[in-house]
Amino acid sequence: MTTKNLKKIFKATALACALSMSMPLFAAPTDHVVAIVGKSVILKSDLEQGVAEITHQLSAQKKEVPPQSILETQVLNQLITQNAQLELVKRYGIQADEKTLNEAVLKVANQSGANSLEAFQQKLDKIAPGTYESLRSRIAQDIAMQRLRQQQVMSRIKISDQDVDNFLKSPEGQAIVGGQVHIIHVRVSGDVDPTQLNQTAEQVKAALSQSNDYKAIEKRFNKDGITITASDTGYRPLSEIPAELSTRVSLIQPGQTTDLIRVKDGVHVLKLIDRKSNDQKALVPQFNTRHILIKTSEVVTPENAKQIIDNLYERINAGQDFATLAATYSNDPGTARNGGSLGWVTPGTMVPEFDKTMQSIAVGKLSQPFQTQFGWHILQVTDKRDQDMTKEYQRNMARQVLGERQFETELDSWLRELRVNTYVEIKDPNLKIN
């Protein structure tokens, strides 16, 4: 088994182990330090837990389990990389917010058959007290490390305007950002040996390459333990198709089928019937907006700021000129000299409180004073329009696709650099690392 495959399994085991309900987290009674990573340590129980989880996962998938020494080496390497990331998580103060954490834990709970966090906690703690909190802590760490990787890796990805132009001119770019596709979609799933599932999927692919009669294919290959779900989706924008499927479709020509696509819910294969350009425009509402901002400071308390903005609100309602008052009193220097004008504003570009107020008032009306993280505001929408943002939308989508392509490469590079720059000392002479 390759190192890469073990890495994938290692990433999944934290949740899979809890879902299996058969292997509670534990601490060895005779624990000792096997490695020092920065300011943290890896215990023998951590290593044994990781090995046990991978062994459990491989056995559940009916895959060959590598020798103990290989498993220990791979798990130790992964634990070192994980601890190095957690060191940075602590240094930068990155945390999983409660809402995101609860949603992530609830998703795991639902997959295990529990419909609430309370029921899930009771279910896990019946296995061993504290199992729920241990799992919750591990998920929180996973979220924090994911955010760390996003921050660190995205800053390394550089996509030029020329890169975007070249991508949009390519067949793949044209298909992704501007096209609709007519496809036949077949999913092969079932509670059978993976080898048997793949064999059936290969047969389905061969049949689909010769025929568009998906109903006949569905009927022909449905058998005990294997379910074939096939459909003709008609014309659909590629943006509405899951990314792991749409990317494959963009690479084939009409009449061709994709390679087998193995995802969590089974094996998928798609056949492209036709492709056509998408004439639909991306019309986005925009608001011509002006505002006055009063900030708090060492000399302006929050109460003073509220009094000032209330006074300005009354003066504008009494007939005084908005632009003149903005130029005189607004603490936003970028807009004050233009009478408070922000120009045309697209929803989503401002902080939520500002965005919500801007979209909720009628053109020409003055908003009530409201507070954001920047201070107290009043705003006025002087005009509204639907702007054709098709080109901007396409370029943003192209940047996203190109960024996703670079992410894994840059992530591997960043992790290697992190590992090199992290102090690691192996305390157990029987253990080796790559």
UniProtKB/TrEMBL annotation:
| Example of a GO cellular component annotation carried by this entry | outer membrane-bounded periplasmic space
Q: Where in the cell is it found?
A: Periplasm
Keyword Coiled coil listed = no
**Gene Ontology biological process terms from the UniProt entry:** Gram-negative-bacterium-type cell outer membrane assembly; protein folding; protein stabilization
Q: What is this enzyme's catalytic activity, as reactions?
A: [protein]-peptidylproline (omega=180) = [protein]-peptidylproline (omega=0)
Grouped into one coarse class, the protein's main location is periplasm
Q: Which UniProt keywords apply?
A: Chaperone, Isomerase, Periplasm, Repeat, Rotamase, Signal
Which stretch is the leader sequence? 1-27
Tell me its EC number(s), please.
5.2.1.8
**Molecular function per GO:** peptide binding; peptidyl-prolyl cis-trans isomerase activity; unfolded protein binding
InterPro entries given for it?
OMP_Chaperone_SurA, PPIase_dom_sf, PPIase_PpiC, PPIase_PpiC_CS, PPIase_SurA, SurA_N, Trigger_fact/SurA_dom_sf
Instruction: Cite the PpiC domain residue spans from the record.
Output: 178-274, 284-383
Q: Known SUPFAM superfamilies for this protein?
A: FKBP-like, Triger factor/SurA peptide-binding domain-like
List the PANTHER family: CHAPERONE SURA (PTHR47637:SF1)
What this protein is reported to do is described as: Chaperone involved in the correct folding and assembly of outer membrane proteins. Recognizes specific patterns of aromatic residues and the orientation of their side chains, which are found more frequently in integral outer membrane proteins. May act in both early periplasmic and late outer membrane-associated steps of protein maturation.
Give the comment on domains. The PPIase activity resides only in the second parvulin domain. The N-terminal region and the C-terminal tail are necessary and sufficient for the chaperone activity of SurA. The PPIase activity is dispensable for SurA to function as a chaperone. The N-terminal region and the C-terminal tail are also required for porin recognition.
Indicate what this protein is called per its UniProt record: Chaperone SurA
Organism, as annotated: Acinetobacter shaoyimingii
